[in-house]
UniProtKB/TrEMBL annotation:
The name this protein goes by in its record: Acetyl-coenzyme A carboxylase carboxyl transferase subunit beta
Gene: accD
InterPro entries assigned: AcCoA_carboxyl_beta, Acetyl_CoA_COase_Trfase_b_su, ClpP/crotonase-like_dom_sf, COA_CT_N
Record localization: Cytoplasm
Record flagged with keyword Cell division: no
Keywords recorded for this protein, A-Z: ATP-binding, Cytoplasm, Fatty acid biosynthesis, Fatty acid metabolism, Lipid biosynthesis, Lipid metabolism, Nucleotide-binding, Transferase
Gene3D superfamilies attached to this UniProt entry: 2-enoyl-CoA Hydratase, Chain A, domain 1
Source domain of life: Bacteria
Complexes and interactors: Acetyl-CoA carboxylase is a heterohexamer composed of biotin carboxyl carrier protein (AccB), biotin carboxylase (AccC) and two subunits each of ACCase subunit alpha (AccA) and ACCase subunit beta (AccD).
């Protein structure tokens, strides 16, 4: 009799526990300022909270949908995936970490590259995905960006990189750091070919990514409120021993100090990017 309290039928509950359905995930989103947004409304608003303007982190799928006409594009070098030349192991083997990330995200690595039309004209885009090991930059990221730059040069097309990264991938050690130089050289070749390169810094853009391609754009732009820097605020404060300015390392702070050309809302991104391309290439402005 002492255990009778859990007999659900006595309380009029007829559904067996194993048949109960949880509320589907993703129906609602709560922004850091506490605003509750319907998931469908969030998607239709470019994944920006309508009440407070907070730009939710999104990945390559969403950026391609925003920037390419009718979400039509050809993905470049889709099959590239990382190796483990150092046989690296921390709390788990690097090979296991890669497989877990690939299974969880459906991605091969932390960047996807594609070519498609944006407002009627072709554009090559490399977009990083933070959900793949924190958007860390390893050999595959560097190689895919380099190949995308080559594709842009060979086809006389403008190039855009959307950065979202925690920095270089420690599991590849010096090999990941070599990607800073590799991608920088390719962007220099793009400049020699007189092709425009747009760098979009999103939240977060840090570490070796910031120290290389993310800050080498002919025009460097960002979304509102993005964290952009080399080392994190805590590390900088501990190193300098000084209190940091308000909004330190936000996109607004960087624009004020001359590191960014402008900040754009995600809803205006496609128009702003194409306006710049039309002006730099001396083309009629596209409606």
């Amino acid at each position: 009799m002492a255990a009778a309290w859990f007999k659900r039928t006595q309380k009029g509950i007829q559904t067996p526990t194993e048949e109960k359905k949880d509320v589907p995930k993703g129906l609602w989103y709560k922004s850091p300022t506490g605003k509750i947004v319907d998931a469908e409304q969030l998607e239709s608003n470019f994944y920006v909270s309508p009440e407070d303007g907070y730009h939710v982190r999104i990945g390559s799928n969403e950026y391609f949908q925003i920037l390419f006409d009718d979400n039509k594009y050809k993905e470049l070098d889709k099959g590239l995936s990382a190796k483990d030349p150092l046989s690296f192991k921390d709390t788990k083997k690097y090979t296991d970490r890669l497989k877990t990330a690939q299974d969880k995200t459906g991605l091969k690595d932390a960047v996807r590259t594609a070519v498609g039309k944006s407002k009627g004209k072709e554009l090559v885009i490399a977009c990083m995905d933070f959900k793949f090991i924190g958007g860390s930059m390893g050999s595959v990221v560097g190689e895919k960006i380099a190949r995308a730059a080559d594709y842009a040069i060979q086809n006389n097309l403008p190039f855009m990189i959307i950065s979202k990264s925690g920095g270089a991938r420690m599991q590849e050690a010096a090999l990941s750091l070599m990607q800073l130089a590799k991608t920088s050289v390719k962007l220099a070749q793009l400049a020699e070919a007189k092709l425009p390169y747009i760098s979009l810094c999103t939240d977060p853009t840090t570490g070796g990514t910031t120290a290389s391609f993310a800050m080498l754009g002919d025009i460097n732009i960002s979304e509102p409120g993005a964290l952009i820097g080399f080392a994190g605020p805590r590390v900088v404060k501990d190193t300098t021993g000084k209190d940091l300015p308000k909004d330190f390392q936000t996109s607004e702070f960087l624009k004020e100090h001359g590191f960014l050309d402008f900040i754009t809302k995600r809803s205006e991104l496609k128009n702003k990017v194409n306006l710049y391309l039309d002006l730099i290439q001396n083309q009629p402005v596209r409606a």
